[in-house]
Write a structure and sequence with these properties.
The structure holds two protein chains of two kinds. Chain A is α+β, with helices and mostly antiparallel strands. Helix content of chain A is about 35%, strand content about 15%. Chain B has 16 helices and 26 strands. The chains are: A alpha+beta, B alpha+beta. The complex binds FE2/S2 (inorganic) cluster (2 copies). Chain B: GO terms for molecular function: iron ion binding; oxidoreductase activity.
Chain lengths: ~180, ~675
Amino acid sequence: MDSEATPVKAEITLRVNGAEHRLDVDTRASLLDVLREDLGLTGSKKGCDHGQCGACTILVGGRRVNACLALAVAHDGAEIVTVEGLAEDGRLSPVQEAFIEHDGFQCGYCTPGQLCSATGMLDEAERGWPSAASEDLRVDPVLDDDEIRERMSGNLCRCGAYMGIVAAVREAAARREAAEA
Amino acid sequence: MTDRLESREKVTGEARYAVEYPVEGVAYAAAVQATVGRGEITSVGTEEALRLPGVLAVLSCENAPELRESGDAELALFQSRTVSYRGQFVAAVVAETLDTAREAARLVRVEYASEPPDVELRADHPGLYKPEKVNPVFPSDTAQGDADEAFAKSAVRVEATYTTPAEHNNPMEPHATLAQWHDDGTLTLYDSNQGASGVQKTIAGVLGLEPSQVRVVSPHVGGGFGSKGAPRPNVLVAALGARATGRPVKFAVPRQQMFATTGYRTPTIQRIRLGADEDGHLDAITHEVVEQTSVLQEFGEQTAVPTRMMYKAPHRRTSHRLVRLNVPTPSWMRAPGETPGMFALESAMDELAVAAGIDPIELRVRNDTGHEPESGLPFSSRNLVACLREGAARFGWAARDPRPGVRRMGRKLLGTGVASSTYPAYMRPSEATARAEPDGTFTVRVAAADIGTGARTALTLIAAEALKVELGRVRVEVGDSRFPKAPVAGGSMGTSSWGAAVVRACEGLRGKLNGSVPPEGLEASADTTDELKGRDRYARHAFGAQFADVEVDADTGEVRVRRMLGIFAAGRIVNPKTARSQLIGGMTMGIGMALHEESVMDAEFGDFLNRDLAQYHVPACADVRDIEADWVEESDPHLNPMGTKGIGEIGIVGAAAAIANAVHHATGVRVRDLPITPPRLLPRL
Ligand code: FES
Ligand code: FES
């Protein structure tokens, strides 16, 4: 049994927030644990470790992913953005700014996941991906409050900051649209 | 309208929570839970676990160091072979990595001599007893006049039993501790809690240390809602693990283990009787509460306590009965007492309004009182009626047709409901220091906790006002037991208690300052113990009115809250921006209580059956459509230098009743057992 019990390691490369990391990871380790414990990127939070709360949401190849459900070894070569990578040169992203403006958080523990989720979600909507709240699947979705609430429902906030979160995402979406127009 | 001062840290991921501090050579703990609900541990097999490479230690009742008694039997970690409830921590592993620790915990073989556990709360349980007091120090029972006789003679009567289930706080950050021992025998705990001073004192006591030998660091805490008000066994798992291995040890309680080991709200069974005259004036109120505690430790939720002060009535009786079960010890969860108690009382008031044919707001207005009924003390201020009136105007109550079950929109039945809200304005002694720095800035320190309440921001506003300087020159530091001793962030008393000490320290500093600040700075400290002893006797409470607008799907029984409005009277509001969020947060949790949250006890084996966030549903983004919170101006000179009453808990109080009352208005069905889920509602539609 010893051979089974000895941790199996694998070498992988992760690009996180633009920096490349060569890592020897336990094949059992989740991306979340590798980010938090090996890379010291503790911005991504662990609320449940079971894909049920969204606190660990990160962007992998631009898409939102629950880092607690992703095995690190399966993400060799992945391009990852965490909450630490949302601001550019110390300038907060529009989503981050809108969260402060609308008080979209209290304790802040769900916040990194909310921010990554909102960032990824705005891209999904822009690409025309529908959600369960989309009335017509043939046209590009309009991010009204129902759409935002549906698309943000994978991120729990026990402090109950949803009113602020929805207002913040609404504003970030509007600003993005204005920037593109 | 001040932004949270730590906003930037929180949106960039820089804010560090308990197990996120970088320390050299850290190891990880994983805990083993009892798999039986009652019994004795006969053996703990650790061989297999210890053979795993990377395992550093296994701790259990067979080798744990002796701990001192603390008054909280839940903290007697690994001190006995007795299993009091299923899910109790019986062993812990420390290993080089999280994965190894978890794997090793699975390999620890604990054997038990077990007996059938007694886990079911029933109103006729033979073990029911009258506790000496309920949380924190209220008498179990009270009586005025002859409530039975008055009730029997009343023209309009309501008699009903309401139940609330066990509910779990479930802060998003789990209970978590990083423990590090130093060469001089002192201990640092980076810990997620609601009060560093309290954790320091309690844990030092348990470990046989002086408080000065334990430092608790917790500048950012990912929520608590009461469950982090006192240290839990997780602190000791980390501290003992670190001592056994000579390494710093992290232990964050896995979500599934939180349900048994970090506290919850007791289920309640509440029988209420209201007797009134034809005009709705109450003559008799009785409120009899049955709830559970554990075989380890008594905790009696003060569920009937709000009934003692809410409405005028000459005849009144309240009581609490507990039964000791093989269950985890219940504890504080947002507004303990008021939350379940006001669900029952305010549902009953709605039933009385229907029975008497009186508008529910009018009914409450008629039973308002200027004196606290049982104590006879005058209220320092009581603006319940103002909240009801203001809320009614803004909610559009006047146009409401009182008939239940007559508004239909397609498949949806529509209805609105109202309930009163209240929470005491507690205060406890606190210390604080204020320092003038030579660079013209000020540093204020108090071992307060900002668990998401906005305490840091509110205290900075308070300090700047007391110092008469602009906000940017003041830095308030909280969340460290090295700072002046402060009471817990609980009982909605944080801002009032810490703020008063901050004001006094700042006033003291201003008295000392005469122009220039010496190079070493200038400091003043304050302790409000004496000031609080000298306060005049008043009944001090915040009040509020909760309004809910719901739709019920007639085919599925699903209830959705379309809109909620809460109007509160809570003294002076220090920072409207964060205050509004906190009140809305409480109301959001109220939606959870009304519609979703229920921890189900496994009647055969013990422990809760639903132990994760998929099976214990807390409100998600899509559950919250439109919640508005606001307040009426209230200036109360009998509180504290700021004039604050506290807002952390009142937002949840009455919210579930307003929703249940709206469900009745929509459907004509009175649901007296929370939560109002489709299986409870649909068969009755
Ligand atoms: S920690 Fe990943 S979803 Fe909860
Ligand atoms: S801000 Fe506390 S959980 Fe969302």
